[in-house]
Amino acid sequence: MTLLGRLKKGGVRVATAIAALALIFGVWNLVIVVFGLKPYVLPTPQSAIAADVDHWSVLGGLTLQTVEETAYGFIIGAVVGFLLGVLMSASKTVQRLIYPALITSQAVPIVAMAAPLVILFGFGLLPKLVIVAWVVFFPVVVNVLDGLAHIDPDIINLSRVLGAKRVRGFLAIRLPATLSPLFSGLKIGATYAVTGAVIGEWTASAQQGLGTYLQTANASLDTQGVFGATILLTAIGVASFLLMVGGEVLATPWRRRSTARRGLGARFRPSVGVGSAAGDVGQRTPPHPAAELVSSSGSPVPVAAGSGARWDPAAVTRDPATNAAEQRFGEEVPS
Amino acid sequence: MTHTRSHRLIAKAALTAVSAASLLSAGALAGTPAGATPRHSKMTTLRLVYDWPGMDFEAVPITAGSALGYYKKVGLNVKIVIPPTTSTTVKMLAVGRGTIGFDTTTDVVFAQAETIDVKSIANYSQDNNWGLVGPPGKTISLKSLKGKSVGIFTDSWTKAMMPYVLRASGLTTAQISEPIFTTDDIRPMLAGKIDVATNTLNYAEAEVQNATGKRPSVLLATKFGAPNVPIWVYTAMSSWLKSHGSETRKFLSATKKAFAYSIAHPSAAVKDFLRAFPKLGSTHKYELDGWLDTIPALGKPGSLLVQRASEWTQVAKALKSVGLLSKALPASAYYTNAYFGG
Predict the structure, then answer these.
(1) B154 to chain A nearest CA, in Å?
(2) What predicted TM-score, i.e. pTM, was given to this entire model?
(3) Whether the predicted interface score ipTM is above 0.90
């Protein structure tokens, strides 16, 4: 796509986002007019934003505090969720042991759990991080687990036959396969993380954040302040989501391009199988019969562990007569 | 509000406004001796919006009045409505979701500042029983607060009172730690997670007594310069009062009788309360402890429910002095005694 084309596409996206925002604010104002709501019940979005502007000297610091709680908690939750997903995928026993506990953990009302956490960990950042991580990790675990469970076993087998060690197989096949579902989980977690931070602040906090500000404004019947803080919290949630979308774009280029980018990610190029992406292994690629590797001349390929031959899944083709997979060894790997 | 109400939050799940109302009505019928009250051809229903999203002993006079038929006798059916949050009562009155409110004086002042014309029609309590609460047997000293952790709530009453704590102890906010709580600061205090809690005496004593069997150490704010003003009041919208003066008078008259009965017969009144809310999950001991600790704040028998202009002037002045209010209105904007003597 040309630069002009890209700019046009970007411009359309921004315009659409602005239109969506305008639509939300328009409906908000319409509800106030149609139902004749007084400002102390529901203020206009303009007045709520004006309240934010007026009190920004206070709100700026509080926003940073809440962002900090959200970000750290999110990172912890995402890492724990990813590792648990990988661990559970590696061992059925571990999965059977941990999965019920994970589901139970999400059935526990987070508000009920928050109070004991505070008693246990005090009023600093830690209990808030635990609450945010608690909210975030579950969608990550479920999605990673799902991604790993849907890898085409033939591709795993193929990599083994080609001599890929466990770590290499994980890095080249399993890890890329988790990326799409991982980002689905991260996007869900990112939007929920800010709610976790607010619950943490509401339970007990030595530092004020937007959650405690919201409570104080509510106690003073400052409805504009309440909705102003709510808008800021929503913005944090939306920004977190967009960050994850950005991360996904960078980490899964094959979802937008048919060829891998040079540089970052090129080494573990995800293009695998018959024109599919490793990130979507097993999700888009239909299972195929176990492949027998043959050379281009038709003789079996001697595959030995540590032979030094570079395995390139993209170079694997099928013999139409035998339906067997074939890799053209010795050929330059296209990038 | 400032007080410990973990029981209320537990009760929130079990209670709904509908069930509360029906139970109250049932209680009223069960507690009324047959033929003791005249049948009113048309009963007026008053929806009393509570101040907290859960029920507790501060509702004892209303449930006792219902059980004894005091309200039915004057043609009223009082239904208690539980608000969704601690600061919704006034708004529910303003939009017509309730008729009578159980509120704090600070809520009335803030409502007027937001042009919500709500007025206090009677005091619930007469005294300011807010203060610093410590573990049993541990004396609280303002001089030793430096470097200590003092649990606070986000409500306006605490905001109004904390400057008095700091002023009396000669400290700044930077010299103490103020962990913020939204539901309960007594349990963390008893667990040693904070040095001192802030709360109202009736809730603090009930919870500490039930947890430890001992009374907490308390330093009331009035002992170090805070104004001795009522915390809780009954409220209504001015517009509603104009067209329902008769009902308001009848309500206050019956409520005053219910207060007198509940003070004279605390255990029986608490039993009526628990009969009205059988799914509360609370014990007679806890509610009775709380009610007995509330009684001293209600004032002398002759001054039950009565309001004074000076109280409102002091509340508005206190809020203004700590920067929570930009303009203090005349006391008449906040309260009216016009509905006594119905």
Answers:
(1) 5
(2) 0.73
(3) no
